[in-house]
Amino acid sequence: MEDLSQLLREWGPLAVFCVVLIEQLGAPLPTLPLLLLAGALAGNAGRLGGHEILAATAGSLVGAWVWFLLGRRYGGRVLGLLCKVSLSPDACVRQTELAFEKRGPLALVIARFVPGLALLAPPVAGGVGMSNGAFAAWQGLAAMLYAVAGIGGGVLFYEQFNVALDWFSRHLGWSAGIVLAVVALMVALRYAKRVSGRKIRRMTPQQLAHALASKDPPLVLDARSMLSRKTDARSLPGAMAVDLDDSSAIDALPAGRRFITYCACPNDASAVELARRMQRAGRRKVSVLQGGLDGWTAWKGD
Q1: CB environment 14-39: b (16+ within 10 A), e (fewer)
Q2: Measured by CB atoms within 10 angstroms of the end CB, which terminus of the chain is less buried, N or C?
Q3: Residue-range domain boundaries for the chain
Q4: How large is the C-alpha radius of gyration of the chain?
Q5: Which CATH superfamily is domain 198-300 in?
Q6: What predicted TM-score, i.e. pTM, was given to this entire model?
Q7: Three-class SS of residue 219?
Q8: Residues 300 and 205: beta-carbon distance below 8 Å
Q9: Of all helices (H) and strands (E), which one includes residue 277?
Q10: pLDDT, tens digit, for every residue of 92-110?
């Protein structure tokens, strides 16, 4: 912590800009403690931290703009890349899409304060066609509020922050152990959820085409969010949209039928989650389309 304090003293706003930029680009850096520390140092010096706030805002906006442009150009492939390093791709993509469905551009502001969603929101905004001006305004507001919350909090409570730093420095060993144990538990739980999704049966596009041509075709269920369906008009033959959060719709599905779920998300995450919830509701004959909508489209050659 002393080394970090020295870095901020020597490089000031430039260090804040670089760290926030790298975090927004995807590095797992805890920027909020750094912003609090930068604010506390400014408070100790009798300053309000205005330069640090501007630097943090600029770093966050520049990093988010990169992902926004990539999301506009490459769409779902960018989300797939980001979620390959996530332990809960079903949550990271779907929660971001649901936030945009319910709150529109305001979702950019909310997402900046939610770990995981802050990285996903800009490419989702690009993928759904948000204009450059709207993105700059809303993401700029999000970045500024995040910077003000962190650095402003450090300025206002710099005395308490100094006391906390002193306590942690004197109890560094076991306090760090507790933090690491909590992180390890979270990782283990999320990894277990991902592994459980692999146990659900998969069906290739070729197998699905054969099943659809049989005398007893399965019922195909589209597990994509409403936003995803609006921005991508593709669908499978005879598919029925089912919101995986709508338990009444799942309960209304005919018992005894075969089902195939699909989505257009990394690792078939939403389709797996819908299949898991259907199984809990007693619909045991459910499989997931391997590769989802993209896999089907590629196989069909469309």
Answers
A1: ebbbebbbebbeeeeeebbebbbbbb
A2: C
A3: 2-194, 198-300
A4: 23
A5: Rhodanese-like domain (3.40.250.10)
A6: 0.65
A7: strand
A8: yes
A9: helix 269-280
A10: 566 677 778 778 889 899 9
